[in-house]
Amino acid sequence: MSVISIYYEDMMSGQSITIRKAVELAAQELDQQGVYFGHGTDNAFDEALSLVLYVLGLDYTISNDALDASVSVLDLEKIREIIGLRISSRTPAPYLTHRTWFMGLELYVDERVLVPRSPLAELIYEQYRPWLVKRSGLKILDLCTGGGCIAIASAVAIEDSLVVAADISEQALEVCRKNIDKHDLQHRIESIQSDLFSNLGQQKFDLIVTNPPYVPQQARQELPQEYLHEPDIGLYSGETGLDIPLKILRHAQQYLNEGGILIMEVGESQQRLMETVPELAMTWLEFEYGGEGVCVVEQKDLLHDF
Q1: CB–CB of 293/265 below 8 Å?
Q2: How far is CA 188 from the centre of its chain?
Q3: Separation between Cα atoms, residue 186 and residue 217, nearest integer Å
């Protein structure tokens, strides 16, 4: 019997339980069952908190004192059910709650798109400093946008920018447009169905930022079960993980204005990319809050033929 079930039975006998205690019990249950954390949270307590607050109709602005409010028997039963589903199905929490956060912005998410978890949020918050020289009237392309987190965060961080959010998946773009509407950015973000650059015409940009698929196909069977809920098209990129990143490097130059830059995340494929194109001048970024595998390439250095 789960620890939550034990307390549920106690409550049926007249005892009470606080929100704080419910979160602690849920976290204990998640830890004991060995679920994987990495889709919006990196520990059992934060995962449990997100699920409990969702059930109670609360958000992260709740005060610490409010966590001492009592949970009803009905709500504890709902908490028990969602924690049980998280464990049994190994479904990432954001797919159960349909909400996640990126750069402090709440976004809708479902299994048509990846759960946002990019270190690029830190760079966007700093308005891409010091890499962007141009500071006003920026035109930005978010390539492989998925649910639109990078496009939306960029538009919020740089208030007079215009952003194109492009993705090969029309299903992903449906989520992206839902989030664009949620943040009332229809006038500044255009969503385009495009296989990389294929439907962008003659457009040029000051910044291309992309978090493309970069996981080697054979790694699929080695990943935690939680990743199996995410769309393959957003994760995997050929035998080495570099099929799509290399295509982007080959074609990005013609879509950048003079002095423009490409910022691309390739995660754990960083070393393979460096070994594949050693002649390319790539600057690899470090992040204060964790994350790796993000490079900056200047437009002038993308003139080479890879």
Answers
A1: yes
A2: 21
A3: 35
10-residue averages of pLDDT along the chain (306 residues): 52 72 95 95 95 94 90 93 97 97 96 96 95 87 98 96 98 98 98 98 96 95 95 96 96 95 96 95 92 95 73
What pLDDT sits at residue 85? 97
Lookup: tokens for 145: 């946008």
- Token pair 């924690």 is at which residue? 83
Q: Which CATH class is domain 100-303?
A: alpha beta
> What is the residue extent of each domain of the chain?
3-95, 100-303
In contact, 206 and 138? CB cutoff 8 Å: yes
Compute φ and ψ for 269, nearest 5 degrees: -85, 5
> Do 237 and 244 form a contact (C-beta atoms < 8 A)?
yes
CA 230-242-282 angle, 5° bins: 115
Write out the two tokens for 100.
Answer: 């996640």
